[in-house]
Amino acid sequence: MLNRKSPQLALAVTVTALAIMLAGGAAIASNAGFKINMPIHPFPGGPTTAVGDNWISLPNFNPYVTVGGLCSQVGLASGIAKATVTTVNPVNGVADSQQCGTAGAAAANLIPGRAYRIRQPAAVTPPPFSIIIVGSHNPALNIHLEDLVGSGPVGSNWISIPYHTTAVTFQDFCNSSGLTQTALVKASLTQIDPVTGTPNNQLCGTAGAAGANLVLGRAMRVHEPNGPKDFIPAHY
Asked: 90, 113, 187, 199: least CB-packed within 10 angstroms?
């Protein structure tokens, strides 16, 4: 069991010594597996709210393969009221949104290292308040950050954070990932609270970043002004 000293890390994360068996019988050898109880806040609807924007980190190796696989295996809504799963391409800033239970979701492959936003409609009765995510880490996977252009969305890099990251604070992540923090224009990091819709925005190299704890399981948006940049996330 991971033991982290942050009160914000309220996620129940089980780390097994055995590899998790993935779809098709393949195993991830000599690598820790994860089983995560991930809170999901219902999306009430509306074009201007971020309430219910559950930006989640997925393990690099997972059994879902496609957006549709994620929907069906974790139990997202696919009936009359459908959950929506979105990822953002940082190269062009275009958001790819797929509704669960559709052919588009079944054909949309998950991208390792990329973050995904789940909007589970509040109209579903009863709405799931958590989902179980399983998978394991790929320690060789590079995370590629596109250069920020203007204020985004080109260069809005929504990335998954390893569940066994060594970073406790935003600043820890800045340091371990080699993000810009000494220049006048600094890298910025964002995590969104899906309950309130409030973003936690912090600049690398500041007291705010040093005092802001990561929330385990939440994805991170990185704006890197000196990209493109590649790094391998630090982990235990």
From this structure: 199
Residue at token pair 């996977």: 141
pLDDT digits over 56-78, tens only? Answer: 999 999 999 999 999 999 999 99
For residues 136 and 110, give the distance between their C-alpha atoms in angstroms, rounded to a whole number. Answer: 15
Q: What would the mean pLDDT of 16-36 be, rounded to a whole number?
A: 49
* Dist. CA 146–CA 162, nearest whole Å: 20
Beta strand ranges found along 40-115 (DSSP E): 54-56, 84-88, 95-99
DSSP 15-35: EESSPPB-GGG-B-TTS-EEE
Q: How many CA atoms lie within 13 A of 61 on its CB side?
A: 20
Are 82 and 106 within 8 A, CB to CB? no
Please state, in angstroms and rounded to a whole number, the distance separating the CA atoms of residues 48 and 144.
Answer: 29
Q: Tell whether the model's pLDDT for residue 34 goes beyond 60.
A: yes
* Token pair listed for 159: 């990335």
Give the pTM.
0.88
